[in-house]
Design a protein that fits this description.
By secondary structure, the protein is α/β, with parallel strands linked by helices. The protein has helices at about 1-20, 35-45, 70-75, 90-95, 110-115, 150-170, 175-200, 215-220, 240-255, 270-280, 295-300, 305-320; strands at about 30-35, 50-55, 80-85, 105-110, 205-210, 225-230, 260, 285-290. The protein has 2 domains: about 25-120 and about 145-195, 3-Layer(aba) Sandwich (Rossmann fold), CATH 3.40.50.1980; about 200-290, Rossmann fold, CATH 3.40.50.1980. The longest helix has 28 residues, at about 175-200. Bound molecules: zinc ion. Zinc ion binds next to loops.
């Protein structure tokens, strides 16, 4: 008996030492998501009843992520696994995870499927960028733009779906999940109203992105015009001189005061545009628009939510569109 206890203690110590050396990251959560949006929505619905985690490390590039052995185990051990179902994770999830998953133990949510299966909802194919001489990339097969979470109405559908799944697997806490999701959806409605308020008072309708553009759903929802240096899933950091010139002209011609980069950007495209515009004797501010592709370590630690990021975006929109 005593021996057994000591032995298991030894094992625990050994494992925690191992965990510490491998960055101390324990990714065993009830609900595990590949990326930030799923993680945040699940965290809101689950409240204190279930733990929610994210596979992507804060600051890591979503499109360069592939799961480690430990990550795959975390998925197979979870109660709910949430993935985007688009360019960044569909392929490895379908190849490496879905054939192995025990569907009785782990419920799988593809956020893309939630949107596609919802009649009357909107989804978009990746489309060429307006006004920018598109880079020499070959015509790829058209694909659904994966950044579905950046539409507030899509976010509401996903939150609602997570609620239904949690209610099903943990029916004793049904009322809690229902209340949590209702509260979160109310906050999303508030964000939506605030965005509409800003747009009603705006004197401009054009967003200039000196970066990639994972916001097709967002601009479509609010009828905004946009130009951008790269498409949504493009991981390029530097733009062709013609792109920088086209964006500079767009700024000057439309009297734009703010250009956007997305979170974690090095502003390699934005800085030369700003310089060009300043050389013409005009001011230009570079602001971050949070697209929740990923979050910084700092924001992750602080527990910054989707709602918080959208509220920051609203303030930036107010400045950029006036
Ligand atoms: Zn993307």
């Amino acid at each position: 008996m005593k021996k057994g206890l000591l032995f298991s203690l030894g094992v625990t110590l050994f494992f925690s030492a191992l965990a510490l050396t491998s960055c101390g990251k324990n990714k065993n959560y009830d609900i595990i998501s590949t990326s930030f949006a799923g993680y945040d929505f699940a965290r809101a619905v689950a409240g204190d009843e279930m733990s929610s985690g994210m596979l992507l490390n804060p600051g890591e590039e979503l499109h360069e992520y592939s799961p480690s052995i430990g990550d795959r185990e975390s998925i197979l051990n979870s109660k709910v696994f949430i993935y985007i179902g688009g360019e960044s994770d569909k392929e490895w999830v379908e190849k490496q995870i879905l054939p192995k998953i025990d569907k009785e133990k782990t419920k799988v949510i593809s956020m893309m499927d939630v949107i596609l299966n919802n009649n009357g909802s909107s989804y978009y194919e990746e489309e060429p960028l307006p006004d920018i001489a598109s880079s020499s990339e070959d015509e790829e097969e058209s694909e659904y733009d994966e950044h579905i979470w950046n539409s507030i109405s899509n976010a509401k559908l996903i939150v609602n779906y997570i609620d239904l799944v949690l209610e099903e697997i943990d029916s004793s806490k049904k009322e809690t999940y229902k209340t949590n999701s209702k509260n979160y959806i109310e906050k999303l409605d508030e964000v939506d109203n605030n965005i509409k308020g800003v747009l009603n008072e705006a004197s401009k309708n054009l967003l200039v992105f000196a970066d990639r553009f994972p916001l097709l759903y967002f601009v479509r929802e609010y009828n905004l015009d946009y130009v951008a240096a790269f498409k949504g899933c493009d991981t390029s950091k530097d733009a062709a001189p013609t792109t920088i010139e086209a964006l500079t002209n767009k700024v000057l011609d439309n009297d734009i005061k703010v250009i956007f980069v997305i979170e974690l950007s090095e502003a390699n495209v934005a800085n030369p545009i700003k310089k060009n515009v300043n050389n013409q004797g005009k001011e230009l501010e570079i602001r971050t628009f949070y697209t929740m592709h990923n979050v910084s370590e700092d924001d992750f630690k602080k527990g910054t939510t989707y709602i918080d990021f959208m509220n920051k975006n609203i303030e930036s929109l107010r400045i950029a569109l006036n």
